[in-house]
Amino acid sequence: xxxxxxKSVDLKQVRAKYSAERDKRVRADGNEQYKEVVxxxxxxxxxxxxxxxxxxxxxxxxxxxxxxxxxxxxxLAAVRLLEQGIDDFVxxxxxxxxxxxxxxxxxxxxxxxxxxxxxxxxxxxxxxxxQQKYTNAAETLSYCRTIAEKYGLADKALxxxxxxxxxxxxxxxRWLVETAMGDALAARFVVHANGPLNRPKLPxxxxxxxxxxxxxxxxxxxxxxxxxxxxxxxxxxxxxxxAVIGTGATAIQCVPHLGASAEQxxxxxxxxxxxxxxxxxxxxxxxxxxxxxxxxxxxRRNFETLLAGKPVKQDLxxxxxxxxxxxxxxxxxxxxxxxxxxxxWVLGGLFTPAMYKSGLxxxxxxxxxxxxxxxxxxxxxxxxxxxxxxxxxxxxxxDMATAEALKPYYxxxxxxxxxxxxxxxxFNRPNVTLVDTDGxxxxxxxxxxxxxxxxxxxxxxxxxxxxFEVGTDYARRAGYQVNGVDGLAISDKWANGxxxxxxxxxxxxxxxxxxxxxxxxxxxxxTYALDEQSRHVAYIVSALKARGKNRSEAAANAEARWVAExxxxxRETEAFQAACTPGYYNNEGxxxxxxxxxxxxxxxxAFFDLLDKWRSRDRLxxxxxx
Length: 626
Hints:
Radius of gyration: 24 Å
């Protein structure tokens, strides 16, 4: 596909096809098309993995730092605080152990689509050797325990504990953190490391509460019902008819195991994912252990630099992600001066002036920029990449109609790309049926069936592979309200869009840090972003303590400038996102309502460098301190 003739591409026709596929999927209700897991649906968030319910009395004490969340974000915050000599902290985690998303997502086939050598944080510190280039969920959960054991985090954790409210108390400059266990912790600082994808969502399908069979969400997999383990072998389904609703990253991984085990499997699809070859392999332990000191940060930065629009001397990771980026800019390679290869920031899907300034200006003259029409050439390269993905479907799936339905018609980074070697072939099984809803979704659910287009598909069990809430109210996703100065709720503060300084500090919410991708460095390798945020928080807490200060919050002007910068840069990628098929990347096709909720558009490396420079000045600029 790299040698395909760009002159053969009719961009007008391609855009029309993509637009038609998008338009039939856009819904006026946007995120409201999903049902909150409360009331009769609260069981979808119950913890099926605990062996015994914790029995303890309430904790009522003062503490320097409360960390909410025991996933990689919470653990990294704890480790980086320890490195600064700060050990008076408590980690509050609603699950029964550390792990966060990897504690909850134990469905068969669950694995990471980012190379383990860069996804696992603290690899140099722990000396851990992942078994394969792409790790599975079981090993990732095990690695979380390795980190916890090395740093003694379990002794500082409250498991099976949900935060019910946080309230700033101005009189003593502390947060009162209350939990459903009756805890009342007075914390000088609070780190909200809940994770952006932590609250399961359900489609608001008519009759969803009428079904009399078995149901569960993939993030709460019911192995008592299916049998087997995260490795598959779901022997409890041999006489069961199963429906899977959703065909995103989770379904891509669990559908092959369901297809291999169930009597009958129906996969209900609204929008197909792009699925490329995974090409996993075993780790050469000698190679990994022979790396020079500092290799881990170098490798993480190399990966993100390539994806963020700047040249690298060597692609250290060389996987499906980096290959995609190199292919997308392959047509520009010969047009750049011999000084170096050109890469563009295309995770947002669009070359922008800001990216030109940060990544291309040293390679291309203004004259060259005017005549090269980079955006159009990028679009052509994207088309060839997606054609390769669509051709793979034809090469694997035997039934022509099924193959056509599985082809994604949108730009590559409209949705998170998927990598799997068995998903497409599963639809060649006689017991597996793809029910393509042509963008409309399931019609309704009855007592014993899932309905679409007048056909009732009778099933014993419905598995919802429908992902997690994104773009809904922060407190709803977190499961608790954050009440700042004078009782100001974070839901009210962000009612019309996020407002922060560097994505972490919020005016009116002193001594609070918010982890996440919004107004921050969005990275495909999310643990890298969490690690950088953790380093930043640990520095600030340490700096405040060294100065004898006990209150800090975003200055009004600093917050306003940061929001303005986010909005200004978000406009540059908005046309691309607005043209994408709906998904959580573009707020279900309603992107323009929340420009300021976007990540820092110059990419994660630029954002991390910005934070590093800010710390190096050691002036705590942009924070009001007392």
